[in-house]
Design goal:
It holds the Pfam family Esterase. The chain is an alpha/beta fold. It has helices spanning 30-33, 36-40, 57-61, 64-71, 95-110, 127-138, 172-179, 192-201, 220-232, 248-271, and strands spanning 2-10, 15-23, 43-48, 73-78, 87-88, 93-94, 120-125, 145-149, 208-214, 237-242. The chain is globular.
Length: 272
């Protein structure tokens, strides 16, 4: 297992960026050297952290290193900088494009990973769950699957927020700086429902989705709402709702379940 921190100049961000990487490269026996997986490259997961977190969170607080090795999946963990993995047109910082396109292209050039869409996943928790859904759909040509745990699906609630209000997490002005005009978020490319409608209208493949949220999580209602929308649109997805809160105990359990789902669903697609 190789554990690395990589710095490179991002054209989208117009500066140097940092991400952590896990590369399970220990399987070097002769019997595996010519396997189909080794020839085409490792499967990959772009794994996003939550609000007030950093690119070190998944390594520090979760089992992701063990899971990367077990499932033979490369994991790349970039920084979201409390910006919900969205572009900022005013500052000309294209964080969403960096996550959904530039980072994928860079890692495919640098590491022995598969370039196939069905071998490429994006996932995250809370803010990162939203970022995974938004960018997994926005850049659906790159991702075969989306993993979203306790997703902070703020587009559902932001249009009702008023100036001079603080919702206990951040202020109206903060959300406006990240999402733009809050009254216009629904129906924009920051709205997962709108992104799915656009993919269906253009007859493009929608990534398979795995959603999980605890019944004691303060974000349960917005995750339920997205689940109901996906059902109404007949979008292929797995939804797990079970006991748990907005904690690493829950995320550790369900990142393990989600990776198992990702590998099994990929194998089923290959067979069919």
């Amino acid at each position: 297992m190789a554990v690395m921190q990589i710095n490179f100049f991002s054209k989208c961000m117009k500066r140097e960026v940092t991400f952590n990487a896990l590369l399970p490269l220990d399987q070097t026996s002769e019997e595996n050297s010519g396997s189909k997986e080794n020839i085409k490259g490792l499967k990959s997961l772009y794994l996003l952290h939550g609000y007030c977190g950093s690119h070190t969170d998944w390594l520090s607080y979760s089992r992701i290193r063990e899971l990367s090795e077990r499932h033979h999946v490369a994991v790349f963990m970039p920084a979201g900088e409390n910006k919900f993995y969205l572009d900022n047109e005013e500052r000309e910082e294209w964080l969403g494009e960096y996550i959904g396109r530039e980072l994928v292209q860079f890692t495919r050039r640098m590491f022995p990973i598969s370039s196939e869409r069905e071998d490429t996943f994006i996932g995250g928790l809370s803010m990162g769950g939203y970022g995974a859904i938004r960018n997994g759909l926005k850049y659906a040509e790159h991702f075969g699957g989306i993993i979203a745990l306790s997703s902070a699906l703020l587009p559902y609630s932001l249009p009702d927020m008023r100036p001079d209000v603080h919702n206990g997490i951040a202020s109206y002005d903060y959300y406006k700086s990240v999402f733009g005009d809050l009254s216009l978020v629904l129906g924009s490319d920051k709205d997962p429902e709108e992104l799915i409608r656009c993919l269906k209208k253009e007859e493009l493949d929608i990534p398979r989705m795995y959603l999980a949220c605890g019944t004691e999580d303060f974000l349960l209602h917005v995750n339920q709402r997205l689940h109901q929308f996906l059902l109404s649109e007949d979008v292929d997805h797995t939804y797990v709702e079970t006991s748990g809160a907005h904690t690493w105990d829950f995320w550790n359990d369900y990142i393990a379940d989600a990776l198992k789902w990702a590998i099994e669903s990929r194998n089923e697609s290959a067979i069919s």
